[in-house]
Structure formats: C-alpha cells, structure tokens
C-alpha cells in the first residue's frame, strides 16, 4: 500500500501526511513502553498487524522541484498528474517522453503492483475515485469495473475523517473523479489499469498552504483516516481487475 504526496508542487500538505503515516506505524509497532490506555493498545495492535501483513511505501514528494518553486508543475512545467499513459483512452503506453518523476513512479508501481494507494492533493476536502474521465470529455459519472470497491474504500476514508463525510458539497465526502473534475493522464486511473491498484486521490483541505497553527490538526486527521483506509484494504484483500 502506498502513501504518495506532493505530486503538485504547490500542494505541500501531503508531504507531511505521508511522513506522519510512516512515523505512526513505526512508533506504535516498535515501542516497548507500558501502554496507558485501551486506545493505545488497539493502535499498537493495528500497527503491528500492518507491519506483519502489509508492505507500506511512503513517498513524501513526487515533485521536489515544483515544491521548491511553489508551482503546480515540475521544473519543466509538466503537470505530473496529467502525464501518465492510460490505455483506456489509447494514450501511449511507453516511458518515452514522460517526466522523470512520472517514469520513476511507473517503474516502482509496476515492480510492486500494490493493492492500494493514496495520492494526497489540496484544494478541496473529498476522497476521489476512478474513473477520472469519460471518452467523450463530459463531466458525468464514469464507473470503473470495481466501482463498488472503490466507493467502499473512499467511504472508509471519509468516515474515518472527522468532517469529510459531513461535506455539503460531496455526498458522504466522496466523489467519482469524472463526475466532479474530469482529467486524463492521472495516476489513479493508470494505477488501476496497469497494476490493478486501488488508488484514491485524497483532497485533504480547501487551502493549499494552510497556516502553521492549522497544519498539525489537518495532518493528524488524515493520518488517522489513512490508517483506517489501509486497514480496510488489508481486510478485504482486494486487488483491481
């Protein structure tokens, strides 16, 4: 299962969430100090189960040059979340002409063929699932073959977050990508087609650069939801078609 942040350089919060997810699991799985509460005992048990039953990958930043410049695209102006090939729309399948970061993510994903992945973005608060686009370019629901499973995983994330599922804009805090914000060449659709990965795009906050006093709470809320989502994925053992 992968936790992937900062694909758009001007959306930095995912960097912090991805790193904190790794820290959450490592600290709770390895600590030897005496537990102080039932909640802590449950968290330790979950962390150990994840370590024993899953392989977790943390990729804090896909676009370090964009982050340094505070730009959406990379140093060459490429939007990495429009740069993936997608066989469903007959786009080129090769690595040729891809941004280096895109090619690296593709090679890594094909090597490990993860069951699931979370790709953190900013600009809204919602769990977004495939398909991200329609053949005709319309803004309308486009169901993947495993639509029910995608909805289950997106809902498990939204419900584990304190406010996402209460959204006035998105019913239950989830959305089909094509019904909301159509795009082509995104990572989550490519993941599903090429490696069978249940990949979600998680929009973590309306603000792209939240103030320091807000950042900690945003990160904590999404770490908890992320852990719940990967636990749900482990329970189902599902892999995309």
TrEMBL record:
On the tree of life, the source organism's domain of life is: Eukaryota
Gene Ontology biological process terms from the UniProt entry: peptide metabolic process; protein processing
Residues of the active site: 203
User: What GO terms fall under cellular component here?
Assistant: extracellular space
User: InterPro entries from the entry?
Assistant: Peptidase_M14 (IPR000834), Peptidase_M14_domain (IPR050753)
- Any idea which GO molecular function terms this record carries? metallocarboxypeptidase activity; zinc ion binding
Start and end of every Peptidase M14 domain? 1-233
Q: Which family does it belong to?
A: Belongs to the peptidase M14 family.
Q: What is this protein called?
A: Peptidase M14 domain-containing protein
Q: Which organism is it from?
A: Ostreococcus lucimarinus (strain CCE9901)
